[in-house]
Amino acid sequence: MAAGAVEKIEQFLKASAEPALLEPGEEPFAMRDGCYAVEARGTRLTIQVWDERRNLVRRITGVRGERPGQLDLAVVRFGGEEGSISLIDRARARREVERRGARMVFREQFRRYLSRQYPGWNIAELSTEANLEESLSPVYPRAFLKRGAAGWAAIGAPPGTAAGALTFGLVWLEYLRKRELRLTVEGLAIFLAEDEACATCLRLAFLNPNAARYAVFVYSEHGYEERIDPADFGNLDTRMEACATRPRLSDAASEALIERLCELPYVERRLRPDGHVSLQVRGLEFARSSRAGLTFGMRQRAKLTGQNLGEAMQLAREVARMRSAKAMDRGNPLYRLRPEGWLESELRRDIQSVDATLLAAPVYGQVPSMAGRERGVLDLLAVDCTGRLAVIEVKASEDIQLPLQALDYWMRVKWHAERGEFAAHGYFPGIELRCDWPRLLLVAPSLSFHPKTETVLRFFSPSIEIERVGLGVEWRQGPSVVFRLRGAERPA
């Protein structure tokens, strides 16, 4: 118990900008260096804090709970009286107060936008409270507008948050339709900062117009808002580089070093779009080439030469040992780092386990590239035996944004495919590619699809062929398909 509590305390203090100890009825103690001590003797753990006027000593008996910015501890006071103390991050608490204040300010701005744009409608509900059951975020104020038997859902995105607005807006719309059975909730109104509307408008073009109506408004820092036409936004932040077929290495010695490392059975060689080489073990890079030459290392990089090749090989062996499906210590950082990279590695090795119609090779990553792409999701591009492209989105953990992030990449692949640019840039050599809309596969462990994934997919255009592929929990031992669902289908 003592060791576990010490670890929790140390982690909390390390993560806190301004830690303090709070005991009910007492002023907080600032936990500055030199003003506190945590001491473990056998199973007995004590914490002591002091300042210019006070001193407090408590014996810790366990951890009662933890949440962002706070760690609650069970303690025993002198005389055997049980009680509790809390370690808090006062800087985080201040930031949270500031965030709440900013949310309240934007909520009232949002109210004014709605009143001006929907005169004659009743704002029946306006909230910034979190709704965990429905996965509704407090970041986005949401409203319900009513007029007679008609209703509209509305959502506002504070500056800098537009990327997630459409997802939460669709969840809110679906929730209102289920709740307000006597009304017809026609559609969703979205309010975005004027320089952040493009991505949302591009997404709307691939939603089903029969599923809902959409209205997009942009607001400025000067306090005015106006309705815009999503069809006016047609430019994609997409580009395609020529396919690199040979590694860009400075000399033959570097190639020889790479070949030696690749003799290890678990080392994967990835040719990046810029022609440089990435050497990985189950999706985790440990060496790479660049303009500066060949380097290796995890946190700190060293130039790879013949003299230290043995060190690089030993590093690869250690990563493979720790990053193994049979690893005893699954809490070690090397095991837990980049789970999407590990899953991608397994899929590349056996892409046909996900879909038998896909060709085993080539399989490309992040083609075309996207400016500002969030790398929590990995993109793979494959082709089936008929020449039709398949976009594969890989996620190893639950993410409510997965469907629309996948749509972002899919629409760019579609755009380039319709213009014949994949073949022109050297991708999929010797394969006659079709210009049909690509397929879209969402691949994740079966228990890691967000519960609202189906809700969001329900609004997608039926012209997009979407498939969700759920993998077994032990996917690190090799991907095995547990379920395969079309679009918004629900598992049995």
Secondary structure topology:
Layout lengths: L1 H14 L3 E4 L6 E2 L5 E6 L2 E7 L4 E13 L2 E7 L5 E8 H28 L4 E6 L14 E6 L2 E7 L8 H15 L4 E10 L4 H7 L8 E7 L5 E4 L9 E2 L12 H11 L4 E5 L5 E5 L2 E7 L2 E4 L5 E2 L5 H14 L10 H4 L2 H11 L14 E2 L3 E2 L7 E6 L5 E6 L7 H17 L2 H4 L14 E7 L7 H5 L8 E6 L9 E6 L6
Parallel strand pairs: 10-11, 11-12, 23-24, 24-25
Antiparallel strand pairs: 1-2, 1-7, 3-4, 4-5, 5-6, 6-7, 8-9, 9-10, 12-13, 14-21, 15-16, 16-17, 17-18, 18-19, 20-22, 22-23, 25-26
Structure description:
This protein is of the alpha+beta class and about 500 residues long. The chain has four domains: about 1-90, Protein Yojf, Chain: A, CATH 2.70.180; about 120-230, Trna Endonuclease, Chain: A, domain 1 (3-Layer(aba) Sandwich); about 250-335, no CATH class; about 340-485, no CATH class. The protein is built from eleven helices and 26 strands. It has helices at about 1-15, 90-115, 165-180, 200-205, 250-260, 310-320, 335, 340-350, 400-420, 420-425, 455, and strands at about 20, 30, 35-40, 45-50, 55-65, 70-75, 80-90, 120-125, 140-145, 150-155, 185-195, 215-220, 225-230, 240, 265-270, 275-280, 285-290, 295, 300-305, 365, 370, 380-385, 390-395, 440-445, 465-470, 480-485. It has a seven-stranded antiparallel beta sheet. Strand 17 (about 285-290) and strand 18 form a beta hairpin. It is flat, with a radius of gyration of 27 Å. The two termini are about 40 Å apart. Residues about 370-375 have low confidence and may be disordered.
